[in-house]
What does this fold into?
Amino acid sequence: MEHGWALPLRWRGPWILCLLPALAGGQPLAAGEVAYKEQTVTGVRGRAVELSCGPAAESAAPAVVFWSFTGSGPPRAVAVGSGGEVAVAPGAGTLGRVTLRNGTLELRELRAAAQGRFLCQGLFPEPGRLRVGYAAILLRVLGGIWGGSRQDGGKGPAASGAADSRVPPVPVSKPFVRPTAAVAPEGEAVALTCAVREGTEPLSFSWQHREPRGGPSASPAGLGGSGAELRLTPANRSHAGWYACTVHNEVNNRTSEPIYLDIVYGPDEPAISVEPFSPEQGGFSAGEREDVVLSCLAPSNPPSRYVWLHNGSQVHTGQTYVIAAIARAQAGTYTCLAENTHLHTRTQATIILTVYYPPAGSPSCSVLATGDLRDVALRCRWLGGFPPARLRWVGPQEEEEEEGVMGSSFSMAASIQPGAATRNGSSFSCLASHPALPQGAACRTTLWVPAGGPSCAAAATKGDEYVMLRCRWEGGTPPVTLRWHDGGGRALGDPAPSAAVLVLSADGSLGGREFVCAAAHPLRAAGAECRLRLEVPKLEAERSEVAVLEGSEARLACRRRGGGTDLGAAVAWYDAKEQEVTPGLAKYWLERGEAWVNLTIRDAEWPGDGGIYRCAAANAVGSASLPVRLRVDRYPAPPNVTISKLRYTRARTEVRLEWRTQGTGNLTGFVVQRRQAKKPPRRVPGPWETAAGDIEPHSRDRRLGGLDPAVVYAFRVLAVNHRTAGHPSEVQTPGEVGRGCCSVWAEKGLSEGQHLHRDGTAELSVSHHHRASLRGLPSSDGGSNGRDAGGHRDIVPSRALCRPPPGRPPTAARPALPHEPIGMPEDAETAASREDGAAPAPEDPSAPGAAAEALPPLAEPLSAPPDTTDDQPVNVTITVTATP
It folds into this structure.
């Protein structure tokens, strides 16, 4: 190719040889490391030949390359290349068809004029620099002397009649390698043959071997020959890799394409590694909760397939087995099984992995008194773990040496310290070590004596069947040893630390007995004790006799006296009827303290609440009782009451009542009672009901309403001093207003207007304020009470028999009954009931307050306050029926 010239330079003279340094572009050149190659190449006229620039092993094409030719004349340029741009110098066609590819100059259709010296200059890039390479090649062109040529016009030996009959030599073609097997097991014989299709002998062969992972090619020295056949007997793993052969003759040399020979082998015996690396006799160890990495390596081609077995069971597939936070159950044997899947061969290796784990928790220190309570036993325990923890005691003045003066042991360690030689407050440490605990562990104890002394107490249990003695003195290391003794020093029960309990059967013989609790400690030279005495409860009252007025509250106080042991004696009260007073009763109220009980009697009544009350207490060894007398007094009787006026209003639905008091005495009010004056035959009169209650003590009259006009009512008045009621007044029925009938007359005798009818009816006509005398009337009590000197009875306005008004028939007079108590207050109803033959209701007004017991509940008065107008006196006629 003589066209396509692209360089703007004119290729004249040898100065072109200086072009390469300028083309370096200022890049540093490694002077002294210039690569130079000089060789002889033979080509055949009319065929092709390749001329390489630089060493044949260059891995990279030159960045800039310049080819020149020196024949019979001066040097001249042939071609230049820079990267992907190539330029062929004018006139290079006389050498043949010139091409430049990757720094290699190829001459096709070689001509005889190409015989001469070719010079190549190239810049080869390397990291951080450019390296200069030179190649001088002497090209021999064969066949140039046989036959004519265009250059010499056909004038050669043939033209001169001396033509040569020899055949021109043939260059070798590109060889190829044929192995007996592409994949061969290690240990078998393998042969590789290098073959060419053409080439004039003699031929020479050379072999190149490159490892599978790359690297420079090397002659396989000692691999069984350097001819056309390469024998590998026997083949091993180092023979695997790329193989190529190069064939040489006098014309040229050609190299084959590399082929890969694979040598199959293995697996070798596996090698197991453990991380973290903790070897020990017979295997490896790891701490619990650590991450353990097991790796297995067994060289093999193809690579091995790995399987992990734990105690014979498959647990993982792969070269590396990671055990995260290993547990104690994962200890045991681990086997790595390696397999070559091509050869179906297996190898294995086994290790023993031990997992160390510490005991649970931490070491515990304890101290006991021993040697008859004179020495101290130090004990340290930390059970479990693998291997067992190593324990040793260290005293307060000892260095933490490996063994210590007290020695060491596994899981449990003990030491005896004499109490007399040990100071109060001395500290001892138990040090623990374990392979799984880099920092170790420890527990500490301090020997000390508690302050103070023992305390004793007693209590009754199970319904006072037993007495329990308790002795306590807490604190201290070791604890204080306690034991009970009786008053004579005899030991009772077993010794116990900090608290001692003694249970005795309860009986009266325990009263007054003394018991002693003795305490001992190894660090205390002198002992200590506490005492208690079992006592029968003792009681005392605030007052032995309490007096209150009726309706008040009475407070009785009782408490236990101190001293001795009360054994939890409970204080109780019994009332006057020997019934125990319990909480929740409406009549009583109990106030209770630790050692006292107060009893309050609400609304004391006479005489039911009076009497002897008893305070009692009992414990397991005896009982006590204390009487307290309660006296309930009544209020003094109020003065007597007399009705001075009782009459209807005009509507007969209301009466006006006036009264007055007689005698002296305190009073707090009045009560007015009423009931029907007439009842059916043989019917006991109805009970009294309150018509007006809570009347002020200064009131002397009351207007009472709400009456039935068809009913005849009887009334009486009582004076009240708190809860004490006086004698009820005489019973009266109201009189008519304006009908000539009086309300009341008292029996004082007949004096004016009196006469005795033949039917036994005595008639007495007096004014309202006169007195009359009636002789011959017997007294209700048979005596002469209310009689004058002549034996006559005085009649005061107490009972009246009203004459009917004009036009109304008179009421039939009844004969006087021999037993009628005319001299005592009596209402009309009583007389009417006797007419009907009914027995009178018993009534004894002689005792103060007797009427109060029959009083119904007081009610508000039904009438308005009485008015201030007084009716004028009227004349009435009293008719009395007397018995001859």
Summary: Residues 828-835 form the longest helix (8 residues). The two ends are 200 Å apart (CA to CA). The helical segments are 19-23, 828-835, 850-853. Residues 1-32, 144-165, 401-405, 738-884 have pLDDT under 50 and may be disordered.
